[in-house]
Amino acid sequence: MKWLCSISLFVALTLNSALADNTQLPSPDLPRDAYVNALLQKMTLSEKIGQLRLISVGPDNPKEAIREMIKKGQVGAIFNTVTRPDIRAMQDQVMQLSRLKIPLFFAYDIVHGQRTVFPISLGLAASWNLDAVATSARIAAFEGSEDGLNMTWAPMVDITRDPRWGRVSEGLGEDTFLASEMGRVMVSSFQGDNPAGRHSLMTSVKHFALYGAAEGGRDYNTVDMSPQRMFQDYLPPYKAALDAGSGGVMVALNSINGTPATANTWLLKDLLRKQWHFSGIAISDHGAVKELINHGVAGSPKEAVKIALDAGIDMSMGDIYFSRYLPEMIKSGEVSESELDDAVRHVLNVKYDMGLFRDPYSHLGPVGSDPKDTNAESRLHRAEAREVARQSLVLLKNRLQTLPLKKQGTIAVIGPLADSQRDIIGSWSAAGRIDQAVTLLAGIRNAVAGKATVVYARGSNITDHKDMVAFLNSYEVSVKQDPRTPQAMLDEAVKTAERADVIVAAVGESQGMAHEASSRSNITIPDGQRRLIDALKATGKPLVLVLMNGRPLALVHENQQADAILETWFSGTEGGNAIADVLFGDYNPSGKLPMSFPRSVGQIPIYYNHLPTGRPYNPQAPDKYTSHYFDEANGPLYPFGYGLSYTRFSVSDVKLSSPTMPRDGSINVSVTLTNTGDRDGDTVAQLYIHDVKASISRPVQMLRGFRQVFLKAGESKQVTFKLDAEALKFYNQQMQWVAEPGAFDVMVGLDSARVKTARFQLL
Ligand code: BGC
């Protein structure tokens, strides 16, 4: 009690002395709430509104204009500025010119690496390895904070079941459990023990919420979803990332059941703040406040501001409505000052948590400490990038052990993606330098130097479709067209291939095809490249396809033609070396698909954890009036969790520690994995459950555990998962979170389609 009194006395004294001078910041020793309240009391209306403004330097906001805003306290944070000198210049302006010297924070889209680019998030998810994910985020945080940044617009944890959507590349796939685990690890690795740490970045989980469920896979489109699906499948990854302590959340651009997320009081206040107790900052996505007019829920800019603020948006990214209209709206009483204060408080809270009030330069250091060359090779973390990239690669096919290749003879490396530095680092590659990326061609040359001959031909453009090229190049030249005719390129490729013992063809998408605003209605490899594959196949040489793409593709044709297929996503700065490691067997592939690969676009949405129907289709006893396509199989080409190895693994029958689980207890689920092949390697044991009978239909399978296991050739290991009643719960018709007694199947396999099953009863 005594100590409590002395703390309050200390707080009161410090507060009083801080309040005495209206331009002096309170003492950073104050606890957060006391500090922020004291600061709020000193702020003018215009300074408060300024804190809600998040802008980037550019044609709309040239440096001089920003200087003036900073001087007047009219800007709260900056995004897209990524070097220490540039960032310091603005923080200096705050300290030298502004009245209250409230530090800016600096944010950037560090999604899969800052300077060292790691595989795109979908590739990271394919590693099924939380340590690899943690490494990538820790290094990204290190490099980002070394560049002076404080916040990243990551992780992106939108569940994605529709590969037409270009942003599936930025997410962690179709499964709730996998995405939740990875999102949680990303947040704790970016933020470290404390977001104020020298090498921590505060995260901003996005895009809250349900952005991945855009109708038809068309970006920014409507989302309409049942409460069960929302709470069971789509919301948990955001919750997991926020529970891991994320200081920020970025609000989605889509509407949810008719209400745009940016205007959604239920989402941002009832769910996020009241039920989930989030105390950080809610940031609108780019231009979202303005877009409320297009959504048809606001009739004027002022109304858009009011709706967004009422709903719970704190900071508005990239638009001017807040700063333009709030001054008069507060004066007229349309928006209350206490509502404004709430939003400002959230901004100041995160600045406090970033440690900026204690040291506005904590990620900058003194002037003399800036790197001489921002892009210096020595600032990269290549070894870690190569290691993580190797883990993200998924072997989809390997007929007659075409792979691994021998480092001998002549290898033809063909394809428009084989030597593309731009593409291999993927979209949202932050401050990653294209010219520091290792292409597949370079990686293969490095691997076989002095041992084998490498010949190369480009073979085709990514696409010859004029409109598509114009689209891909609309903001920057991201695909460079070869001036030769398609036939001339094809002929050269065939001639090159004919001289070789084996063909490695790098085909797929350009990075810009798997990006924001890059939805596709057709998810095959573009035509010109398909003609190239046909021509290469016709040479009769062994054909290895190295896929580079940011979404599941429909690959039925390629699966028939190729001898081996390696899915490499966009694998980052060290991608070429990592892929070569796998192609030549220096690393045994262990990646597993985080999304189902459909046979055709018509099967979409396709995901492994679907509900049963009343008329299930049985291919062994087909019946017309069952749930199926008459022109296509029901299942995917490659299922969720699938990925081959150069060795073979077997899974024993599933052993349960008990045939029953008490309601408050748990059971152990064990299998023995054996490496029955002749190479050492990693695989991923995957645990699924199915609630056999419940008060509502439950998915045919749901991932509830996974573990990467390394096994030497011939070695066996027992893998045990602990399963408790929490893992069996779901939202019932009344939206209660319950586990219902009865039978459950528990399945363990190395992919979702081939599993061993046992049954237990929940008491
Ligand atoms: C995207 C966000 C991104 C933001 C800032 C928006 O267009 O939807 O994911 O963080 O831009 O770059």
Annotation keywords:
763 residues; alpha/beta; TIM Barrel; Immunoglobulin-like; 3 domains; eight-stranded parallel sheet; 27 strands; globular; disordered N terminus; hydrolase
What does this structure look like?
The protein is an alpha/beta fold. It folds into three domains: 32-108 and 198-354, TIM Barrel (Alpha-Beta Barrel); 384-595, 3-Layer(aba) Sandwich (Rossmann fold); 649-762, Immunoglobulins (Immunoglobulin-like), CATH 2.60.40. It is built from 23 helices and 27 strands. It has an eight-stranded parallel sheet with strand order 9-6-5-4-3-2-1-10. Strands 11-16-15-14-12-13 form a six-stranded mixed sheet, with helices on both faces. Helix 3 packs antiparallel against helix 14, helix 16 packs across helix 23 (575-583) and helix 18 crosses helix 23. The protein is globular, with a radius of gyration of 27 Å. The chain starts with a helix and ends with a strand. Mean pLDDT is 96; it is low at 1-20.
